[in-house]
Amino acid sequence: MKKFLSILLTVLLSFGLLAGCKGDSKDNSVTEDSTTKENSKEDMKGKKIVVGRWGGNDAETAAFNQVVKDFTEKTGIEVEERIYTDYNTEFQAELIGKTAPDVVYIDAYMAPFYISQGVLMPLDEQEFELDKFYEPLKNAFLSDGKYYAISKDYSTLALYYNKKWVNEDDIPDTLEELWNGDFLTNLNDKLPEDVIAMTYNQDLARNLFYAETDGASVIKDDIYSNLGDSKVVENLEPLYTSAKEGKIKTPADIGQGWNGDAFGNEKTAIMIEGNWVLGHLQQNFPDVDFGVIEIPTFKGNRGTMTFTVGYAINVSTKQVDAAKEFIHYATGVEGMATWSAGAGVLPSRTDVTESTKVAEDLLKMPHIKGAVYATVWQKGTTMDTINNEYKNYIPSVVSGERTLEDALKKSEEEANRTIEAN
Predict the structure, then answer these.
(1) Sequence-separated contacts (24+) of 57-63 with Cβ below 8 Å
(2) Gap between the Cα atoms of 116 and 95, Å rounded
(3) For residue 53, what is the enclosing H or E element?
(4) Which residues of the chain, if any, have pLDDT below 70?
């Protein structure tokens, strides 16, 4: 009997397949696919999803609310917003308690950790049109050939200069010449006594792209610090030679909280900073006349850092289709245009960059150019430990207490001791 049923099933399947081959199969499949999609969207009306994010300024809040409003009007899917004040702590607690939202912000820096924990759902490259995204932003959430979040916006670093003291054409084309040539020395001689030529940061979030130039890596074997590597030391030498010579100083050295205040208060003529500083300068220091250019090349290469946040789906969500629909809209042409224009951020999609004409803003254009070649601020799951030790030991280089090689080796040893203990 089993053999008879098996043969009968085979015959029926064969007949069905043959019958399906008759007529215009292409038109049938298109019609069926279209009908399926329409039915699927109809089925999602009245669904509700929770989207977790951290709070922003008033413009970001208004822009997010507008995206949600437009999305709900188009799809019928309701969105409940969940605001985090201590994102990593709260989100991880929710994951443990199985109360995490359906969709959540994921910072690229933390993506390797959450991906390694298996709590994020893989997302299809074609479904979310990832070919339209800047490559570094697309790959910020890539692991083992799968994408786990879709970038919603980004920031990059660029060089800012005060036009009162600096002529753009005089700025050296390379970081080596900027840091180690006569430009900063000559500039400093012309500045008022309480103004320095340039500020900098002792932080791998700012220094990583030149630390890793020419194939160098600050990490080895996926988790261990490699800061003492001779290539890394060589790459960082020009920066800290300049710092030891007093040509550049940190904002703290001159009594300022960060680059934005140092530059806005006209305590420095040049800084390298992210595009988030634009609003700060325009709102709080409207009289400062400044320009923005791409960071000068280093060892013949263009480089900068990029920081991005994406939308991800909780792997345990019961609203998979609705969650995907939200991300598809929020990171699609319409949703991203609404978000980026309203929040004043840079769109992660190249086509939205074009449609919103944001690149016509001369102050933002250097940041946008950087999206093509930027290094993502992300490096495995132990970067906090590695960067903390870097920041602990680097001041001793500037003070002359240690050589750069010795300080980086010490920071490597301390970081790896902590990593092994955990």
Answers:
(1) 59/342, 59/343, 59/344, 60/342, 60/343, 60/345, 62/342, 63/338, 63/339, 63/341, 63/342, 63/343
(2) 14
(3) strand 48-54
(4) 1-42
AA letter at 242: S
Confidence (pLDDT) at 41: 64
- Cα angle 256, 172, 188 (rounded to 5 degrees) comes to 45
Number of other CB atoms surrounding residue 42 within 10 Å: 9
- Closest by CA to 48, choosing from 116, 112, 105, 101, is 101
Are the beta carbons of 351 and 335 closer than 8 angstroms?
no
| Separation CA 395–CA 412 (nearest Å) | 15
Check residue 380 and give left, alpha or beta (phi > 0: left; psi -120 to 50: alpha): left
CA 139 from chain centre, in angstroms, equals 10
* Burial of 177 (C-beta count, 10 Å sphere; 0-12/13-18/19+): middle
> How far apart (Å, rounded) are the C-alpha atoms in residues 415 and 16?
64
Q: Which of 207, 231, 206, 204 is nearest to 217 (CA)?
A: 231
Predicted local confidence at residue 44, as pLDDT:
84
Contacts of 376 (CB under 8 A, 6+ apart): 108, 136, 137, 139, 140, 305, 306, 307, 308
Provide the pLDDT for residue 40.
55
| CA dihedral (97, 100, 105, 106) positive or negative | positive
Distance CA(386)–CA(394), nearest Å, equals 12
Per-residue confidence (pLDDT) for residue 27, from 0 to 100:
42
| Confidence at residue 410, expressed as pLDDT on a 0 to 100 scale | 99
Report how far residue 379's alpha carbon sits from residue 217's, in angstroms, rounded to the nearest whole number: 10
Task: Specify whether the CB–CB gap between 376 and 108 falls below 8 A.
Answer: yes
- For CA atoms 112, 113, 117, 123, give the dihedral sign: negative
Element (DSSP H or E) covering residue 107? strand 103-107
Looking at residue 139, what DSSP letter applies?
Answer: H
Which residues, listed in sequence order, are joined to residue 312 by a DSSP beta bridge?
Answer: 104
Report how far residue 360's alpha carbon sits from residue 362's, in angstroms, rounded to the nearest whole number. Answer: 6
Is the distance from CB of 204 to CB of 216 less than 8 angstroms?
no
Quote the pTM value: 0.90
